[in-house]
Design brief:
421 residues; alpha/beta; UDP-n-acetylglucosamine1-carboxyvinyl-transferase, Chain
Length: 421
């Protein structure tokens, strides 16, 4: 659907949260590198996950898809069956698989669409230059042509650009023919994503030693083991429903893990700090209706994906909210700081865009009207999350972009009482 037209309505009910997209990517790649069959359960099939499945299949991995599960027959030798790897708009697929492809020593061509074409890969280009690995791009953009043999050694990587580069290296370094290390030259932002990587690697038999806060030591010649693995629910997707529950009549989010390593579990503490009643019942997280929601100061360095929905929530809260350390959002599927501030302001919000964050003065109600998703799934879902606080209907252009991460979002929205005209 190109447009959705939402009539303001309070949502209520119970929802099964989709599985973590971040963990799904990692589990599929680890299973693909294993020598055997892995069974992955609770898979939510979005465009990004399909991109990773198709990519590893091009590298000789066999995948059998069920309704919500995958059976993966790994190929630790990685034979190129199709050199063209289309990553769609998935940054994880691209940045996780580029270093793996660089270890195969065969020609591989990475392509993609949307903003992914422009997403920077300079961290890898520096490594390829140092190791004299052949690569070619087009004025810094995709497609990327790659052929080389990645060597073990000491890798110096900035930690304040994207943790995806670190994860990509941690996937491939264990299978090289010598020991390696990843040394961070700056403080690591989005550390929880690297923690997730280490946890999934461990589940598939790979050991990485974290030496302090800025060094990862990786023994070479390791072998990935096949594993049966169930993916937990996604806190970044639950965040939309928790916000809608607080602004509506309460929503129960099922399938979450209370002691999760996901950085976006911070949504629980952030919402509580803003005065929202949130409580656990087993593996379910409940957001109860909250009459008074207060502005807050939010450090987004470890939870960047939460920024759009928190900005939307702040726009209908009491007082002022400042979101800091969010500059990396400018190189996501859209410039998310510009996108969310622009669209909230269109419907009566008061959002000031800063270089690395947002300053938001809350209002009791928004006017409603037409907004644009910027072809960014998180922008579309964040705008929908405050539709109940609009005086008039909200029309979201480009609403089909949710298929990137959550194809069933609009269906679930209606199940919980959302009124799509």
């Amino acid at each position: 659907m190109e447009y959705v037209h939402i009539n303001p309505a309070k949502l209520n009910g119970k929802i099964n949260v989709p599985s973590s997209k971040s963990i799904c990517h990692r589990a599929i790649i680890c299973a693909s590198l294993g020598d055997g069959v892995s069974n992955l359960e609770n898979i939510s099939f979005s465009r990004d996950i399909y991109a990773t499945c198709n990519a590893v299949e091009n590298l000789g991995v066999k995948i059998y898809r069920g309704k919500s599960n995958l059976t993966v027959k790994g190929n630790p030798r990685l034979t190129v069956k199709n050199p063209y790897i289309n990553c769609g708009q998935s940054g994880s697929t691209l940045r996780f698989l580029v270093p793996i492809a660089a270890a195969i020593d065969e020609k591989i061509i990475f392509t993609g669409g949307g903003k992914l074409i422009d997403r920077p890969l300079d961290v890898y280009y520096d490594i390829f230059d140092n190791q004299k690995i052949y690569y070619k791009n087009f004025n810094g953009k995709l497609p990327l042509i790659l052929k080389g043999k990645l060597k073990p050694g000491d890798y110096e990587v900035r930690g304040d650009i994207s943790s995806q580069f670190i994860t990509g290296l941690l996937f491939v370094l264990p299978i090289l023919d010598g020991d390696s290390s990843v040394n961070l030259t700056t403080a690591l932002e989005s550390r929880p994503y690297v923690d997730i990587t280490l946890d999934v690697l461990k589940k598939f038999g790979i050991k990485v030693c974290e030496d302090g806060l800025k060094r990862y030591v990786v023994r070479g010649r390791q072998k990935y083991e096949s594993s049966d693995y169930r993916v937990e629910g996604d806190f970044s997707q639950a965040a939309f429903w928790l916000v809608m529950g607080a602004l509506g009549n309460g929503i129960v989010c099922c399938g979450l893990k209370k002691d999760s390593l996901q950085g976006d579990r911070m949504i629980v503490d952030i919402l509580k700090k803003m005065g929202i009643k949130v409580k656990w019942t087993g593996n379910s997280l409940i957001a109860m209706p909250s009459d008074r929601i207060y502005g807050s100061t939010i450090d987004a360095s470890q939870c960047p994906d939460l920024v759009p929905v928190l900005a939307a929530l702040a726009s209908v809260s009491c007082g002022t909210t400042e979101i800091k350390n969010a500059g990396r959002l400018r190189i996501k599927e859209s410039d998310r700081l510009k996108a969310i501030s622009s669209e909230l302001n269109k419907i009566g919000g008061h959002v000031l865009e800063k270089e690395d964050g947002l300053l938001i003065r809350g209002r009791e109600r928004l006017a409603g009207g037409e907004v644009d998703s910027w072809d960014d799934h998180r922008i579309a879902m964040s705008l929908a999350s405050v539709s109940s606080r609009c005086l008039n209907p909200m029309t979201i252009k480009g609403a089909e972009c949710v298929k990137k991460s959550y194809p069933g979002f609009w269906k679930d929205f209606m199940i919980l009482g959302g009124n799509i005209l």
